[in-house]
Amino acid sequence: MNIKITDRFVLIEDSNFSQFGPEDFVTLCSDYERETIVLHGKELEESLSFIENNFKSDYFVQLGFTAAKDSIVLDTFDRKTQLKQRKYVSNMEAYDDIETSYRNEKNENWFNYIPNSIHQENLDYLKNETIPSRVFSLEDQMNQVVATVMTFDSLFYTGVTVDQVGWVWIKRGISKEQRKEAHYKISRWLKDNLVQDFFQAGIHIENYRSQNFFKKIGFKVQCAHISQK
Hints:
The chain has 2 domains: 2-56, no CATH class; 70-220, Aminopeptidase, CATH 3.40.630. It is 31% helix and 30% strand. The protein is built from 6 helices and 10 strands. The protein has helices at residues 22-32, 48-54, 91-103, 116-129, 176-192, 208-216; strands spanning 2-5, 10-13, 36-40, 59-68, 84-86, 135-139, 145-155, 161-170, 198-204, 220-228. The protein has a 10-stranded mixed β-sheet, with helices on both faces. The model has no long low-confidence stretch (mean pLDDT 94).
């Protein structure tokens, strides 16, 4: 294994990750006194099913997806607009919609793999990072929010500053036309509002719906962060 040590984690690059399991995790974290291991390399995507199975219980695995501006794909939709942008005047007003959409995911499988303590930690972090200009929400004709996305500055595993997609949500059950419109407008907003060189998005390994969304709009998986629950 090609191992590097940072002040935050153990980094393993260009390895056969299908052979990496909990025993390796425990040994390396003990040897290098770190709590997180990051896997990165060309074989990562092909090894995701193995990683998921190897760390199914007792571990928190988050995948890191990235996309530069030119990589973001703009889907097409019927130009008859059904959704409009919701305007925010305060941090708390924007955060309220983020928190509501986050808690609406409580029945999703991925949600239940994450301990309540980490959910609360996530919400506290999102609250502290919420700025109205970096939150984009869409509402329907009944003024109900059906999609939202927020970004903030964060660090990539290499230490460079990037735009983090901290949260994205599209309501289940909306029409196909509304979903296509939401995909397009979220993609368009991300493309128009990139501040740094590229975006990163952290997605739980069990959150297939979110992974599929990011893949569809041009994001590629780059790394996997593993820590114990």
